[in-house]
C-alpha cells in the first residue's frame, strides 16, 4: 500500500513538474495558433477584396485566398512549434518522406489538382461558356481544382475530372451559339419575299442577337427545293428554345405570304420492255 502511494506521489510530482515547465509554453502555442487563425481570416478577406479589382475567375480568386490563408496559418504554426522547442529540420524531413508516400498513393487526385491549376491559370474556358470536350458538351457551371461541371439543357450535370480535359481537343463556343436552320422553298418562289420573311422573323424574336448579325442566304439548289440557310446567334441558355421558336415562326410567316415549302419529290419513269 505504501509503495502504491509513493508511486502516485511520484506521478503527481512529475505531472506538476511538466505542467510548470511546459504548461506556459503550451498555452502560448495555443494562443499563437488562435491569433494566427484570426489573422489568416483577416488576411484572406483583405486579399479577396484586393483581387476583385483584377479580372480573375472566381475559382482563381478562391484559390489565391486559400493559399494566402494557409501561408499565414503555416507561419504561425512554425512560431508555435518553435515556442514549444520542437526541432523543425527533422520534422520537415519526416513530412517530406510521408508526403512522397502519400503522393504515390494519390496520383489520380494529384493529377486532377495539377490539371485544375492548369485550367484555372491558362483559362481555356470560363464559367458560363459552352464547351465540347471528351465526348461531352454543355455550359460550364463550375471550375474547381479537381473537376469541371457542365450543365445540359435537360437540367442534368456532368462532372469531368480535370485530367480528362487538359491535353484534349477542346471546342469552346463561348457565351453565344450560332443556330443552323435550313428551310426549302419551291423553285417558283420569289426569293426576295422568302428572304424578307425570314429576316422579319429573326428581328421579331427577342432571343436572336443582332450583333453579330444573323446570316441568311440561299445555300443550295436541291432536287425539289431551293434551300435557305438561317444562321442567327443566340445566348447559350436560349439555344434549344430558339430553334423551335424560329422554325415555327418561319413556317407561319411563309404560310402568311403564300411561300410554298415543297415536300420531297421523286420522278419515276416506267420503261416498257420490248420482247
What does this structure look like?
This protein is α+β, with helices and mostly antiparallel strands. It is built from 6 helices and 11 strands. The strands form 3 sheets. Strands 4-3-2-1-5 form a 5-stranded antiparallel sheet. The protein has a 3-stranded antiparallel sheet with strand order 6-11-8. The chain has a 3-stranded antiparallel sheet with strand order 7-10-9, covered by helices on one side. The protein starts with a helix and ends in a 19-residue tail after the last helix. The model has no long low-confidence stretch (mean pLDDT 79).
In total, the number of domains comes to: 3
- Count of β-strands: 11
The residue-averaged pLDDT reads 79
What topology, given as strand order, has the largest sheet?
A: 4-3-2-1-5
Major β-sheet profile: 5 strands, antiparallel
CATH class of the largest domain: Mainly Alpha
In CATH, the topology of the largest domain is named: Helix Hairpins
